[in-house]
Amino acid sequence: MMKKWLLPLLSLLLPLSLGAQQQQIADIAAHLDTHRITLHYSCVFTQDAPVQLDGVLTLQGACYRAVGNGMEIYNDGSVRWTVDPKSREVYIEPAEGLEELLAWQESLSELKITEVKYLPLKEDLSDFRFDTAALDDTWVVTDLR
Question: Which residues contact 136 (CB under 8 A, 6 or more apart)?
């Protein structure tokens, strides 16, 4: 089911002339419903001023977790936690799972995907949630749900 979101997202972000990367996208999409997938990504975010982004993305069903550039984003399919450990801030918002990644497709370029791993699915989705209960009072938590 979630293949319908990942394949268009990744295929729109990569140049069509890169056949090997297109095959890689097809392979990832084929495993989205049957595996937990981790991959390293690199791209340029071009909204406002260009910013190079690098990190690790973990996908399972409608859930994802992106870690990179000092930020962490957790999404359990309905809630998104954006965590800035350096600033000690957490923003909690309603989310749309993988679908929300499509909203940024026009602002990304030069996407590279490496180190793709297909792991067994896990019933425990806690890796896609951020537990604010463990934070001390020096953190700012903004809950917009």
Answer: none
Gap between the Cα atoms of 109 and 18, Å rounded? 14
pLDDT digits (tens, 9 = 90+) for 4-59: 444 444 444 444 334 556 677 778 778 878 999 999 988 787 777 787 888 999 99
Does residue 137 lie within any of the structural domains? no
Give me the sign of the Cα torsion angle 7, 11, 13, 19. positive
Token couple for 138: 């020096």
pTM beyond 0.85: the answer is: no
Q: Tell me the per-residue pLDDT of 113-130, one tens digit each, with 9 for 90 and over.
A: 889 999 999 999 999 999
Residue span of the structural domain in which 102 resides: 3-118
Strand 51-60: give its sheet, edge to edge.
Answer: 108-120, 35-45, 51-60, 63-68, 71-75, 79-84, 89-94, 140-143
